[in-house]
Structure formats: C-alpha cells, structure tokens
C-alpha cells in the first residue's frame, strides 16, 4: 500500500487530487489546471462573440463568473477532460445509453472518475486489484472484484456521475509491483473528517483523564496529609499518657515518702513530718534499730540468771551472744522489708483515694 500514490484533500482541490491519483504522480498543479480553465473560458467567449459583441447574450456572458473554475479550487469536467487529453485519455459517461449498450463488465476496465456535488475522486485498478483513491480517505481502500460492480451501483444510487477512463495510463511503480503480489487490508481507511473527529475526541478524553488523575493525585496528597496528622495526634496522645504516668509515679513516690515519715513519727517523736530523702530515711532507721537493740540488750542484763543444766548451754555464753547478734541482724532486715511494704501499700491507698476524688 505504501507504493500507491495517494493525495489527500487540501482545500477544494479535489479535481487536482483526482487526476494525480489516477495518473499516480504529481502530474498537475492548480496553476496548470487554472490555465486550462482560462483557455476554455476564452474559447467560450469567442463562440459567444460570433453572435455579436453588442448582443445581450454576450454582455450577460461576460458578467457571469467562469463555469470552469472558481476561487475555492473547483474545476469542471471540461477541465479534467482536457487535462487527460494531454495523455491521450478520454472520458465516457458510465451510465450513458451508448456505454450501457456495450455491456462491458466493470472489472475489465482500468479506471473510473466519480463526481458528486463538485467532488471528484478516482477508482483505479493497480496490478490485479481495485482501489478507491478518494482524497477524502486517510489512505487507499481495497475493493474486491465481486464488490466493484456493487460499489459503482451504490454510487449511482447516491447521485454520483461516473466516467470511464479510456486509453493507456502512464506506467507506475505501484502497478508493476502489484502485478506480482496481492495486498490484504485488515482495516478500512476512515474519512479524514472522521479521523479528525476521533483525534479531537481522543484529545478531549485525554484532557479529561489528566484532570481526573490530577484530582486523584490531589486527593492522595490530602489522604497522606491526613494520615500524617493522625499519626502526629497518636504520638501526641502517647506523650501525654506518658507524662500523666510520670506525674502519677512522682505523686506515688511523694505519697510513699510522706507515709513513711508519718509511720516513723509514730515510733520516734523526734522524726519530722516533712518529706525526707532516702539517705536521711536510711540513717534514721539505722538509729532506730540500734536503739532497739540496746534496749533489748539491757533487758537481758537485768534479767535474773537462771540455772543451766549440763545438757544446756547458758544463754549468756559467747555462743548465745553470737546467735543473738545474728537474730538481731535478721530482725533488722525483716523490719526494713516490712517498712518498705507498708510504704508502698500506703502510697497505693493514697493514690487510689486521690484518683477517686
């Protein structure tokens, strides 16, 4: 298909495209076709002048625009026919009685030129296959032999004028190549207007898709910001909870020390009711335990001595004294544990009472 010459529509130069697609090359330009049109206009003027340059018909003819061309680029069938005469080609009306009497099968022809409402296009055989070379199509359209007659009949029904091109067309590369191979067409070419509309629709859809994606990205950013905010709030709540726990722990320690001070003040009037450091509390406890030990020792001295049997050892012997000292040390450790336990229980009770308030 790439070897087939196919001019696409530009402005209203369909007659030029029709001729060049028929001859398979850039054979004619708008300037050359305009020259042919001016020549035809001059020939018509000379014929009208034969009736008298002062006649009403002649003056009317001069005032009318050219019937062979216009400013849009349209050219008449006379211009096309004269252009083809340069190459020894002739046009015959396909649906004329003279041609229909010949009963020629369309597939035995070489090419057709079709016209409807000032639009011209070519249907030509290249190699052994037929192609619709309409300049309004995005590319050549393959036409099967069985479909060709139906295609031409459909054009006639739609109001097209069809002309058979008689004569030998110039040699072309596409015709030589397609004599050896056949092409297959999977998709019919679209009209240029349809393609432009489709491209425009695709452009609109693409723009809509980009807007949707931008909106989605924006929503994603908002979601990410919201997630970050939630995480920050969670961390803040955790920090507040930790601060509350630390505050509770500090209050518990303070209450524990105050409770210990109160318990000590009940046993020792000299102990202050104010909060004490751990070192001061330890020293005062040692002094208290030492005083207790001295008091117990004095009681042992003052107690009447008892008779000891041979099987018994006096409690006042050196061994008894050592046992007494070991017992005193154990008693001191037990009392310290009891004091710590009591302090913790007091702190817990005070903390519960404070929370209930």
Strand order of the largest sheet: 1-6-2-3-4-5
**How many helices?**
10
How many strands, which pairing sense, and closed or not: the largest β-sheet? 6 strands, antiparallel
| Gap between N and C termini | 96 Å
- The SSE string, one letter per element, is HHHHEHEEEEHEHHHH
What fraction of the residues are assigned to beta strands by DSSP?
5-15%
Give structural notes.
A six-stranded antiparallel sheet has the order 1-6-2-3-4-5, with helices on both faces. It starts with 13 loop residues before the first helix and ends with a helix. The protein has 357 residues and is an alpha+beta fold. The protein has helices spanning 14-23, 30-49, 56-63, 77-85, 97-102, 145-157, 173-178, 192-267, 278-302, 318-356; strands at 90-93, 111-116, 119-126, 129-132, 141-143, 161-166. The chain is rod-shaped, with a radius of gyration of 60 Å. The model is unreliable at 260-274 and 305-324 (pLDDT under 50).
Topology:
Layout: H1 14-23, H2 30-49, H3 56-63, H4 77-85, E1 90-93, H5 97-102, E2 111-116, E3 119-126, E4 129-132, E5 141-143, H6 145-157, E6 161-166, H7 173-178, H8 192-267, H9 278-302, H10 318-356
Antiparallel strand pairs: 1-6, 2-3, 2-6, 3-4, 4-5
What labels describe this entry?
357 residues; alpha+beta; six-stranded antiparallel sheet; 10 helices
Task: Describe the structure concisely for a colleague.
The chain is an alpha+beta fold and 357 residues long. The protein has helices at residues 14-23, 30-49, 56-63, 77-85, 97-102, 145-157, 173-178, 192-267, 278-302, 318-356; strands at 90-93, 111-116, 119-126, 129-132, 141-143, 161-166.
